[in-house]
Amino acid sequence: MSARALKGALRRFFVVADLTARYVLAKTKGNKMAADGQGGVWKSGKGKGRHTPKGRQVDDTAWQEVRALLGDQPRRRDLLIEFLHLIQDAYGHLSAAHLRALAEEMRLSQAEVYEVASFYAHFDIVKEDETPPPPLTIRVCDSLSCELAGAQQLQNALEAGLDPAEVRVLRAPCMGRCDTAPVLEIGHHHIDHATPEKVAHAIATGDTHVHLPEYQTYDAYVDAGGYDTLKQLRTDGDWEAVQDKVLASGLRGLGGAGFPSGKKWGFVRANPGPRYLAVNGDEGEPGTFKDRHYLERAPHLMLEGMLIAAWAVEAEKCFIYMRDEYPALLEILRREIATLENAGVIAKGYIDLRRGAGAYICGEESAMIESIEGKRGIPRHRPPFVAQVGIFDRPTLVHNVETLLWVARVCREGPEVLNQHEKNGRKGLRSYSVSGRVAQPGVYLLPAGSTIVDVIAAAGGMVSGHSFKAYQPGGPSSGLLPATMDDIPLDFDTLQPHGTFIGSAAVVVLSDQDSARAAALNMLKFFEDESCGQCTPCRVGCEKAVKLMQADRWDQDLLGELCIAMGDASICGLGQAAPNPIRLVMQHFGDEI
User: Fold this and answer.
1) Do 19 and 61 touch, CB atoms closer than 8 A?
2) CA–CA gap between residue 287 and residue 279 (Å, rounded)
3) Separation of alpha carbons 239 and 308, rounded Å
4) pTM of the shown model
5) CA–CA distance from 348 to each of 258, 317, 318, 341, 455 (Å)?
6) What is the pLDDT of residue 53?
């Protein structure tokens, strides 16, 4: 061994020997200290270890209750909102114990469950030290049509005349029943033309459950030739020929965007499967109730249109997203979907009915898809578009309820059912939801080129003693136009030059007894409440706008700058369109501000 190698070996030997000696000395000293009762390097051994995980513990009783409610349903992440509804319906609120148990059962973090539950207005979260809400809740609609009909006075009377320990009275956004304003929901029962006396009677008789209207059942629809077109297409149909027929009819998306319906099919088909179809039934734009009107009468017309569109894009599954404010429609659809399954028209589970939970923003298609996936309804950034990356990141065809009604009719009756109608240079038909100061509010199917004069005439004219002053052509997102602008065809593309749009054709008529300024404030308060809060321009902009609009005199320069910032920088249509009521009131009703 060389001298260098020997030197290294000796160095390693002495290092090991030194460490060994130090260890023995320390152990001896520690044992002596322990024997003398002085502690030392070893613990006392009194069993102070943790017996449970950190954080809120699972309550066994609550866990058993949640398991009983969920039954044998799969514990999939996308079913979270459905499971929250089960707990809310059963107990009237979401306790901290039940939320913790649900998180455990679904193998989710408590934060995930809480953030979803707290996003939606129809879930009542109750913490450990809080009192649960009373057994009965009354929601009074405060949309513009109901406000004109005395909703605020109705709410004040109910709050003064009812025991808050037994009945909770809340204001709520549009319930899609503007034709029978003022409206409220007691439990799951809607009371039209509501009065304190009607409410007292409902409470006394326990009439708080949903009432189903008479509608065309599956058998009646089949007897009238229903589903014959679907069967023929499934046998030997050509999807491109059907697409051409829909395009020839001029059918455009009737949820508000107005995109040519047939073109969507080609975009979705161009992407590899699996593909899905989603029906947007979250009809939350105040003043809109046409989808409810049609579904309460002929649900299978929409269902057949949906199945035709699903066939065209080879969708592996259909999702119907229906707003929670429509409990009757949810029950009708549950029954009729089951009937379709039993009749062999669809496979069991092919149509998945999802229940919203009180969030206007879920009417935006990507926010609706987030909600279908069991998440907060926050709009996605685009691109990619939902035709490429939709539900579960798969290509998804999204259609509005009324659009699918027309798909079924166009496929059955030909494109002439729409394109043969013409007025003021416009082709097609439009379903106008009409409310406010008209004699006969309701849904009116009129030529697409109809003006506000035609719409008011169809609704029986103005209410006696009222003169026409202004109108909302397409929900609060469209703002207000003065009565002097009464010759504009209410259709896609005709209103944009005037700073507004037709949207969902939600027409609210104001009279000389109404304030355009107050109407605009009502609209902005709605947007303030319903903003999802994701982007600063919308979240902060709506709040700031409401404060500025409550001043004695509007700061028009500052409001104008705010409108530009919101319109240019908001992520989705809510923040982009929210300034319209401000802009148009400043433009046409300057004497009021």
Assistant:
1) no
2) 20
3) 9
4) 0.90
5) 33, 11, 12, 5, 43
6) 80
